[in-house]
Amino acid sequence: MPARIIDGKIISEQVNAETATASAALHASRGVRPGIAVVLVGEDPASQVYVGSKEKKAKDLGFHSLKIVLPKETSQADLLAVIAKLNADPAIHGILVQSPVPKQIDERSVILAIDPAKDVDCFHPFNVGKLLIGDTDGFLPCTPWGVMELLRRSGIDAAGKHAVVIGRSTIVGKPMLALLMQKAAGADATVTVCHSRTPDIGAFTRQGDIVVSAIGKANFLTADMIKPGAVVIDVGINRIVDASTKSGFRLVGDVAYAEVAAKASAITPVPGGVGPMTIAMLMRNTLRACRRANGLPAEG
Ligand code: GUN
């Protein structure tokens, strides 16, 4: 039987509807709106698209949304000055500096400069530490949290399952490990992390009840690399040449979709899988930050 499609578009719309309702309630009771500032340095075309989507979604949800585009030659000092201003702005609850930044800027210093209470990406070491110790009062990293919500809202419980993550990036692989192995509802998995130096990745992924691929290689995960009935989550976004499209390119994930879908029990498509969830969880983090800034619990 072909795999059930885990539809990130539909599930993200549910999450966004909840966020919009909670945001409206906050406005009605406290007169405040969640505010997010998205900072882009330079003109990277993919980043421009991502930043535009974040700004639009924030506006759609009734948030205060600020997009700051700085020239590609912006100095580190000037960027840090922009962040300091946003840290001090009471109308802004979440700050995101789109990655990658130009070479003259040290990304680590930028992350450290963001007030941890406004770190809606969950990149600051303070929030990464909270994540690792299971303190859920802070922020959760948007993409891995989106994956957990896709599983939870699709009725897939990771408890006691073997989850295999491919990729060890700071944005996806490492926090994915932390969330899946967490002692918490929907988590509690046994987790294996494979990466570029793992010999024979298929030997590990074939043991996975849940396989999360975040390696950034088109058609990397093939049907022979999964066990029948596995749940396959594709975090990859890869641009491949496709002469039949207007742009000459097409976006695909890490998974050889057709053959894996024929063997898996559930699978996320690309596009329309994890991608929309990342933005939805970013908005949820901004709402959480706003609630906390107003003396309320993060959720409720
Ligand atoms: N670049 C690609 N993904 C992300 C993300 O989730 N946050 C930020 N700040 N930059 C990114």
In words, what does this structure look like?
A six-stranded parallel beta sheet has the order 1-11-8-7-5-6. The protein has a three-stranded parallel beta sheet with strand order 3-2-4, sandwiched between helices. The mean pLDDT is 97. It has helices at 8-30, 45-60, 76-88, 107-113, 125-133, 142-153, 173-181, 201-205, 257-261, 274-293; strands at residues 4-5, 35-41, 64-70, 94-97, 162-166, 190-194, 210-213, 231-234, 238-241, 249-252, 266-267. A hairpin with a 7-residue loop joins strand 9 (238-241) and strand 10. The longest helix has 23 residues, at 8-30. By secondary structure, it is an alpha/beta fold.
Please specify the SSE layout and strand pairing.
Elements: E1 4-5, H1 8-30, E2 35-41, H2 45-60, E3 64-70, H3 76-88, E4 94-97, H4 107-113, H5 125-133, H6 142-153, E5 162-166, H7 173-181, E6 190-194, H8 201-205, E7 210-213, E8 231-234, E9 238-241, E10 249-252, H9 257-261, E11 266-267, H10 274-293
Parallel strand pairs: 1-11, 2-3, 2-4, 5-6, 5-7, 7-8, 8-11
Antiparallel strand pairs: 9-10
Helix pairs in contact: 1-10, 2-10, 6-7, 6-10
Which term fits the overall shape?
globular
| Count of alpha and pi helical runs | 10
**Named CATH architecture of the largest domain:** 3-Layer(aba) Sandwich
Percent of residues in beta strands: 15-25%
CATH top level label of the largest domain: Alpha Beta
Please describe the biggest sheet, giving its number of strands, its sense, and whether it closes into a barrel: 6 strands, parallel
Task: Please give the radius of gyration in angstroms.
Answer: 19 Å
Could you list the spans in which at least 5 consecutive residues all have pLDDT below 50? none
Beta strand count: 11
Output the CATH topology of the largest domain: Rossmann fold
Beginning-to-end CA distance, first to last residue:
40 Å
